[in-house]
Amino acid sequence: QVQLVESGGGLVQPGGSLRLSCAASGSIFNVMAWYRQAPGKQRELVALITSGGSTTYADPVKGRFTISRDNAKNTVYLQMNSLKFEDTAVYFCHAQRGLQYYWGQGTQVTVSS
After folding, report:
1. In which order are the strands placed within the sheet that holds 65-70?
2. Which of 6, 60, 65, 84 would bridge 107 by S-S if both were Cys, CB 3.0 to 4.6 A apart?
3. Which helix (H) or strand (E) covers residue 7, if one does?
4. pLDDT of residue 75
5. Would the pLDDT of 28 be above 90?
6. DSSP, residue by residue, 20-36
7. What mean pLDDT is predicted for residues 28-40?
8. 61 phi/psi in degrees, rounded to 5
9. DSSP element (H, E) containing 12
């Protein structure tokens, strides 16, 4: 059974940084991504990365967030810099292999002064 285990969330002040990690079990995934869901809003894509290293970012995080992956560890990371109040959300790891996809349990990121 595939498991995605996230870590690294927490409370940070505006302008601060956090690094999220998501360790996946099983064989390598074609695409790994981070989504987020703020209270009262729909879940939205933050960033994704293919097994070959191609990346895509949502406009609100471009230039501030960096997604990366270690295929040997089957782990994806999200480095978040210059955090803003509006980045507050539950962040979910997502992994896709062919037509199958999986979600992590989510990790809370709160940006507050």
Report:
1. 4-7, 18-24, 75-80, 65-70
2. 6
3. strand 4-7
4. 95
5. no
6. EEEEE-SSPPSEEEEEE
7. 95
8. -110, -5
9. strand 10-12
**Can you tell me whether residue 63 is helix, strand or coil?**
coil
End-to-end CA distance of the chain: 40
Residues 9, 111 contacting (CB under 8 angstroms)? no
Question: What span, in angstroms and rounded, lies between the C-alpha atoms of 22 and 93?
Answer: 6
Count of C-beta atoms within a 10 Å radius of residue 13 = 9
Tell whether the torsion through CA atoms of 61, 23, 69 and 80 is positive or negative: positive
Q: Give the angle subtended at the CA of 9 by the CAs of 5 and 10, to the nearest 5°.
A: 150
Burial of 100 (0-12, 13-18, 19+ CB in 10 A): exposed
Only one residue has tokens 């709160």, namely 110
